[in-house]
Every structure is written in structure tokens, then in C-alpha cells.
Write a structure and sequence with these properties.
Layout (H helix, E strand, L loop, with lengths): L13 H5 L11 H36 L8 H5 L6 E3 L2 E3 L2 H44 L2 H5 L3 E4 L6 E2 L5 H4 L9 H9 L3 H14 L5 H10 L20 E11 L18 E9 L16 E3 L9 E6 L2 H13 L19 E5 L2 E2 L3 H9 L9 E6 L9 E19 L8 E11 L6 E9 L17 E3 L11 E4 L1
Antiparallel strand pairs: 1-2, 3-16, 4-15, 5-12, 5-13, 6-7, 6-12, 8-11, 9-10, 9-11, 12-15, 13-14
Helix pairs in contact: 2-4, 7-8, 8-9
Length: 479
């Protein structure tokens, strides 16, 4: 659909409105007069620069070039040679006078030509000096350093604080941001749609080759505009019925599967916040959707991924021990359902002590009766099919368009908080019998959440990134 001046994309932002000065509200008659005065000032500056340059040239010529011929005078060099000689019946000038005068004229001509060409070289020397200073002041060094343009299209993170201009708060750091982050600040989280269309337009105009176009969209982890239906990625029109938060790295650096050995008993996060887009009444085939009003859903309470089991008798202990022995793997997994515990549950701790080695765990488990330490508390990690520490899956009240997500820190030690994660959404098919999972949030860079337990992120949300394929974004070099 064609954009109009009333569209949000073409309207100035709040930061630009706040910086308008009184010159922006001049009358139409005053605008040409101001422009004429500016042109006159430019002409005066140009004439002044020329006058300064010529003055420097004349000073250099008078100080260095002219003294070279200060003693080359006609009287001292050619006076005797050019004296009239008497010859019957006429006075004639000798040939040595002609040679002397010609040589003296050539010397003066050489000096004059040197002065003229020196003005040319001095002018360009001054232009180079002042041009270098102006280029450094304008930050144009990288323009001439190479013929290749390196594009870093890794947006890195999608975190933002609603209502806060992230660009204005860190304006000094803007030169250090990547091209992907700059595109995201201009076009929003759907900037890959704009990038794909820009690349396709360059290809249609024969500015770049098909190979270059493939490299440019691949660097942004998106797809060609002409081939958008052949890939399964999240789009602004998708309605998600379920969301899945997956932690990929913890603060202490331990492996996700070993979190229980470091004291994890609950989930990696305590609550998940989901911000939805309101369904618009107009057409849904808009290339760049405007920012709609959002709904903040109630947080979802999450089930713990571990369960504590109380052993009171030796018969209970022996039954669990035999089930663990029947499993031939390296981990202490229950081979079958025992005492209300499902098959596949993993024993990780006895009376608060964690075990990495299965043999040591079974030995201490068998010695509970010898040491008369019953009753004892066993900690089991639930089967992966039931619940997981690193994966949090929730159902939405109805299929909705997701705008952003956030969460609250977990209940365990802060060193077990996720610092990298991803969020996936399930899109049901039209028949309602199936569907597909699509990743909507990438947190590739480390983001340490607050150390306080069961605490929100201070208003920080993580936007859904549309038109992004799975995999890390990269970079590309263009001629």
C-alpha cells in the first residue's frame, strides 16, 4: 500500500520535534531571503580563502624565488657586450650582445614560470592540508581507506525499554553500533523486511548481482523478497497459541543439563510476561506495520523441574535402588515408574548433597540403612518429556500476535540465571490439528538479569524479530 504523509513511518519522532528552533517556523517570504544571505556568505568565504592563498603564494615568491635573480641585471651582465661599436660607416651591435640578452631573458622567463607553477602546487598543497583536517573533523577517514564496504548486520539483541529513546540515552556510543543495530533503530524489529526489499530493488535495477543479493540477505539472516514463501520464519501476521522460553547459557557458565548439580531446584525463570499486539481492523498485508497498542498478559506461574521424595523405609529405598540399577546408562535414571515417580526421573541429590558420579550416588544410597539415616530426602529431576529447567512452555489464552516478551528472575541462586536465551512460538494450522514452531526472539549477546530473586527486568522487554531465519547473523563485504 502506498505511504501517505499521515503514516507513522513518515511522521517525525518525538526527539526531532523537541529540537526544533525558531528558524523552523519562519514565514515563506523570509525563507528565500535567508537562503540568499547564506549564498552571499559562502561567496565571501570563498573569495577570502582565495585571497589568503594568493597572499601566501606571493609572500613565498617574494621571499624565496625573486632573490634568486636579484643580481641578474642588464648593466652588470650585458653592459659591455652591448656597447655600440664603430664600424665604417655604421655603429653595430655585436653577436655577443644578442647571446647575453637572450640568456638573461631566459633566466627571467624561468623564474616567472617557476612562480606561476608554484602558485598551482602551493594551492593544491594547501587544499590537501585543509582538506585532510576537514575530513578528519567530519569522520571521513574510513571512506578512503578501502574500496570495500563492510556491513555488520548482527543486531545482537532486541532489548528495549518502552517509552525510552535508547538512541538518545547512548548518543555518544552510536559510531560503535553495528549496521544491523542502526537498521533496527530506524525501522524497528521488522527491519529485515525493509532490508530484503532494498536488496531486491538493487538487484532489479542491475546494481548488484544475484550472488551479491544472496550474500546480503544471508548476512542479515533473512531471505530474498522474491523467495519469501519458500522459508518458514515468523512474520507480523502470525498468531501464536504457545510460547517456549529456552535458556542457552547460564550466568555461571555451567552446562544446562548440570544445573541441578549446582543447586537448581525450580525453573530458570519464575514468571514469563507476554506483550501482545492488538488485531487491527484494516488489511493485514501491510509491509511495515505501525506500532500498535499492546496488552500485557498476566504472568504465568511455572512448575518446578525437580521433585523431592521422602524415603521412610528400607523397602522404599531398595525399590528405588533396583530401578536405578536396571538403567544401564551413565546417569542415575529410573528405569520404570516407582512410588509415584515417573520413568526417566534423574536422582541428583541425597539429603542436600549433589552427585555427578552414578556409582558414588548408588553407594551412598545403599549406605543409608547402615548409617541409620532414614528417613532421607531424595531430589529427582523430572523427565525431559514432562518439564525442564531450561525450557519454559506456556499456553496463551487465544492465538495472538506477539509483540515482545519479558520475564522475572528465578527462585534459585542468581548464578543459575540465564544470560542468553531464545523464545519460540507455536503457530497452529488452519485445521487446528497441527502447526509449527517459529523462533521469534534471539538473545545472542550476554544480558545478565538482576541478582535479586523473582524480580522483573526493570521494564526491559525483548521484541519479536520477524523475517529472521534460524542461525546467527553475520557480515558481508560489498564493492
Amino acid at each position: 500500500q502506498p505511504l501517505t504523509a499521515s503514516d507513522a513511518l513518515l511522521q517525525p519522532g518525538g526527539s526531532s520535534r523537541s529540537t526544533l528552533s525558531s528558524e523552523s517556523f519562519q514565514t515563506p517570504a523570509a525563507v528565500p531571503q535567508t537562503k540568499k544571505l547564506q549564498q552571499e556568505n559562502v561567496k565571501l568565504l570563498r573569495a577570502g580563502a582565495w585571497a589568503l592563498m594568493l597572499s601566501l603564494c606571493l609572500a613565498l615568491e617574494a621571499g624565496f624565488i625573486v632573490p634568486l635573480v636579484a643580481d641578474f641585471r642588464f648593466e652588470s651582465f650585458c653592459g659591455e657586450s652591448c656597447a655600440l661599436r664603430y664600424a665604417q660607416p655604421l655603429y653595430l651591435v655585436g653577436s655577443d650582445c644578442v647571446a647575453c640578452v637572450g640568456g638573461l631573458g631566459l633566466i627571467w622567463m624561468l623564474v616567472i614560470l617557476t612562480a606561476v607553477f608554484d602558485i598551482y602546487y602551493i594551492f593544491y598543497g594547501g587544499t590537501a592540508i585543509f582538506g585532510y583536517a576537514m575530513g578528519e573533523w567530519r569522520g571521513l577517514r574510513n571512506v578512503l581507506s578501502t574500496a570495500l564496504r563492510h556491513l555488520d548486520l548482527d543486531s545482537g539483541t532486541t532489548l528495549r525499554i518502552p517509552g525510552v529513546d535508547m538512541t538518545a540515552t547512548d548518543r555518544d556510543g552510536l559510531p560503535g553500533i553495528s549496521d544491523g543495530e542502526a537498521m533496527q533503530q530506524v525501522f524497528g524489529v521488522s527491519w529485515r523486511m525493509a532490508w530484503s526489499r532494498i536488496v531486491e530493488a538493487l538487484y532489479e535495477d542491475c546494481v548488484i548481482s544475484s550472488r551479491q543479493a544472496d550474500g546480503m540477505v544471508k548476512a542479515a539472516s533473512t531471505v530474498r523478497w522474491s523467495n519469501q514463501t519458500a522459508h518458514d520464519f515468523a512474520s507480523p501476521q502470525d498468531n501464536f497459541s504457545r510460547l517456549r522460553f529456552v535458556a542457552t547459557e547460564l550466568r555461571n557458565g555451567c552446562a544446562i543439563r548440570d544445573a541441578a548439580l549446582y543447586g537448581a531446584r525450580h525453573r530458570c525463570i519464575s514468571k514469563l510476561e507476554v506483550h501482545l499486539r492488538r488485531a487491527s481492523a484494516g488489511p493485514t498485508s501491510v509491509s511495515l506495520p505501525a506500532e500498535p497498542e499492546t496488552l500485557v498478559l498476566p504472568v504465568f506461574d511455572l512448575e518446578d523441574f525437580t521433585v523431592e521424595h521422602l524415603l521412610e523405609t528400607e523397602e522404599q529405598l531398595e525399590e528405588i535402588r533396583q530401578s536405578l540399577l536396571n538403567h544401564k546408562g551413565r546417569q542415575a535414571l529410573l528405569e520404570s515408574s516407582v512410588q509415584g515417580l515417573s520413568a526417566g526421573c534423574r536422582l541428583v541429590a541425597i539429603n542436600g548433597q549433589s552427585y555427578e558420579n552414578k556409582e558414588h550416588l548408588l553407594y551412598d544410597l545403599a549406605s543409608l540403612t547402615k548409617r541409620s539415616t532414614l528417613p532421607a530426602t531424595l531430589v529427582f529431576v523430572k523427565a525431559e518429556s514432562d518439564v525442564s529447567f531450561s525450557k519454559v512452555e506456556v499456553d496463551l489464552p487465544r492465538p495472538s500476535r506477539v509483540k515482545s516478551v519479558s520475564f522475572q528472575t528465578g527462585k534459585d541462586d542468581h548464578r543459575l540465571d540465564p544470560v542468553r536465551w531464545r523464545v519460540e512460538g507455536f503457530v497452529p494450522d488452519k485445521r487446528g490439528s497441527g502447526g509449527s514452531w517459529k523462533q521469534i526472539v534471539w538473545q545472542d549477546k550476554r544480558y545478565p538479569p538482576p541478582s535479586r530473586r523473582e524480580t522483573s527486568l526493570g521494564g526491559v522487554v525483548f521484541d519479536a524479530e520477524y523475517w529472521r531465519r534460524k542461525g546467527e547473523a553475520g557480515s558481508v563485504e560489498l564493492q
